[in-house]
Fold each of these.
Amino acid sequence: MAKYKIIPIKCGEFQQHEKSTLTYFYGYGEKIITPIIAYLIRGEGLNILVDTGCSGEEWAKKYHHPIKQTEDMKMLNALANLGLQPDDIDCIVNTHLHWDHCWNNDLFPGKKIYVQKKELEFAENPIPMQYPYYESEQIGMQPPYKKTMDQYEVVDGDVNLYPGIDLVFIPGHTPGFQGVLVDTEGGKYLIASDCIGRFENWEGVGIHKHLPSAIHVDLKECYATYEKIEKICDYILPGHDMKVFEQDEYPPKK
């Protein structure tokens, strides 16, 4: 059976980020530093990049939220620190097409980028609340995902990508959201990204077994997705939690 390692990559840090945007109605008024996370799957001779991170500081401050981005957090530098160049990446998976997850797709010319059919359809005409997240043409912007339209490998639903690696359809945060389920020596890890933005979304609070993000399209789909996740994985890896970086890789080194 194929076994892989998963390495988190910090692409930037939102500054003074409103926590309750990630923990629906909980933590209101609490300002936190929130990382923007991509993941590298390594093993069996493969290097698979899950999401490509965000813009630089100036753009993020102007159009979204202030971020801190050191030189080591820039995608090509982060990969170089792992001994990799763009040509070493076998393929890319976009969990979804929000600006902070697909901004650097164009740094990997010629590489297949896997995206869900429903995500591409929704990104073309999202609900108004999500216009800024997609940098939509409806508000006069140029969506970053459109820079690499010719590289997309469009999938529909759950798909096996490689032995031990599956694309899993987990809508809610967006209608075409996908996670990546990975076999490791420590069990099955789901790279859940913004479907489960923080560990506490999965751990829940009070009467809530799982706590949705406030950024979602369909709350009912969020709960159905949580039921699906419970059945398929042993561990989750979120999209915006600093605790992820308490380990250099997953499963953790012994």
Amino acid sequence: MLTIGELASYAGVTVRAIRHYHAKGLLPEPDRDHAGYRRYSAATVVELIKIRTLAEAGVPLARVRELLDAGADELAAAVEEIDERLRAEIRLRQRHRERLARLAAGDSLALPATVVEFLEHLRELGVDERIVQVERDGWIPLAARAPERIPELIARKREQIAHPPLIDFYRTLSRTLDRTDADSMLIELVDKIAAYLTRLADEQGEDYVGGAIEPSLAALLDTLAFDTAPPARRLIELLAERGWSGWTRLERR
């Protein structure tokens, strides 16, 4: 005969759990011996392990006793149902793990593959990671707000990034981030970019240049850019002097 502590040890539960199962009527309380202690049989170990297994599988305690008392066919059907639910939970948790892995990977958490590839291309071009972050943070709200526009916008961006003035724009802006004397660099950059934008707008139309992003979303994306890369705000001021306004939503004045 076993003490309650020994029973708990053999069954892999706590003494408190055994007492809880007693209170719920799942495990009958044995008679006490002459010294006033409860003594449990070896069969109780088997019974307790079954209770523990069902409880750990998520079976409500109110149903555990019902399953233990069920016939073989009914118990088999119930176990199959429980197993299917557990497999569904495993699949859900696996999806959560995959999302966490994407989070650890960075860009791919909230962005389509085409945008992730574009960001990787910027890195290959030698663009500072902070500028890449400006791009990434801008695409995330855009992908959430207007996912149907992403293929069109990323194709346009891919085409534009092949133009030397735009590549130079990204690289030069990268170099200004840690410079205290960046204004001369920005002025030279803006002169080139303003000429490039004017030519592009004349050839392709102003929507092609600005992307026709709705004003409220453009304002949000601008704020993200200015907070991450402060020289961007100065760049906008210089662009305005050359007839262009905006950052995300570029417009000829």
Amino acid sequence: MSKRPPPLPAQAADMRMQMALRQIGFGAAAPAPPRPQTSDEALALKRRDWLLDVMERQRELSPYASGLLTAENLSGEDFLHSFYAPGRPVLIKGMIADWPALARWTPDYLANAIGDAMIEYQGGRNGAGDYELAKDRHKHRAPFRDFIALARSGGNDAYLTAYNSAANGPALKPLEADLGAIDAYLTRAPGMLWIGGEGTFTPLHFDLTNNLLAQVTGTKRIILVPPSQTKRLAHRTHVFSDVRDVTDAAQLKTYPQARDILRYEVLLAPGDLLYIPLGWWHQVRSESFSTMLTYTSFLWSNAGHEGYPAG
């Protein structure tokens, strides 16, 4: 394995993290209310949806083309040609099995490793339906040990997310020694850490970059929905769906078009990688105390966010 590159200066590293967060869609302001569509625009959208439906029906002809595949120790070349370039998700086993963090990162270990260093997390989420859009309003600070105690108690109210990564880099740096590298797919840029208890939930959305999720400890249940289903998902605000949870009966009653969407369900276990291409809808729920990293620093172009029509 090649040596790690020298660390970036703190200011450059912070700028790179902020860029990564913007690419994913974090921190973006909600767009202005849309103007009424012209008849030509409405027709263009109908034609686009028709094409997506036809393409989806064609993929259904093949279990290989339409299924969510699982691979083991997938080479970089196979990952590029079969999944990254085609924009197709894949669950990858075995690539990070030797990371020390998989065995070490219990709540007690994390609390002792970082101690009382001050960190930033997303708090006060219970009862706030817009906590994903209003991330800055939900920034909280606490000694890391106290945050871990909150996370251990479960629920959705306290969650250290990728949006907090830039602020937390120095405090959480000791944990990097427990991680390895995924050189077949990624540069050595750091991932963005997520730590939360059972019940933390990220509502249905898509990202503006290709993402690689690396589950370290605990389990997360992820629902993936292909871009072809967008017309059924009440997509009105930035990268979010008004259908926050496609498993919630009350929301499906409000948005009946979302009842029959094509979707894939993945239980992400320790050591699993999940590649989620740009534009694929997903929602994420922790089923236990969980630690995970998101990576966007692929070896190949990941710049789709640059042309996104945000408003």
Amino acid sequence: MTSVLADSTFVPPGVRDFFPPAIVGGITKPMVLLVLSVVVVAVFFLVAVRDLRIVPGRFQFAAESVYGFGRDSIAREQIGGRDFAPYVPLIVSLFTFILVNNLFGIIPFIQFPTMAHSGFPLALLIVLYPLFHVVGIRRHGLGGYLKNQLFPPGVPKPVYLMLTPIELFLRFFMDPLALAIRVFAAMFAGHLILLVFTLGGEFLLLEAGAWLTPVSLVAFAFAIAMTFLEALVQVLQAYIFALLTANYIGRALAADH
């Protein structure tokens, strides 16, 4: 966390706090955390499947629960029972990868949600965006896919003059962009709120005078409460990202709009 003490004046946290200085060369803390998250997810599943048992232990049970949740509650529900299986590894990987990166924001001594850097969600979008459309084109052909996405059946033909541009904007621009913006905005705002309460409490405790010490305790109490709320948001945002990814894939594969 960046210090807020500057000549006994409170300097509120801002965007600058999301750009820590390089550790060495051009390598920054968010880059290290991104690599660490991949290692954490990979080790988690590799260790869990190292000694599979019919009656699973706690670690195997946890891994199976995560995998089963991604498979049944996300991929199967959104893509459909006939087509979901090939996409389960992608959905589970996305969910766990984003979850770990989000939870970094509340882990002591790390305290930085990687997805609060807009470049990382956008990088995921660059990878996923072609997939959303390639799967549909492979299933329906280019003409059939465009017709399926841009010309909903049962609509009077004159309405297409207004509806088709809207569908084009939503399907090929706004929907995928919102996928990346949603997780970035939630992580950025949540971490900024935690910084405000934590660093504000520090300032009130150490610099603002003894008469404001009780107020600092209120700030710290709010920081603790917001940490629990932020943990819930972090899990939900990982879930929503994986859910919408599966939804877009299922929409592209579906025979009907």
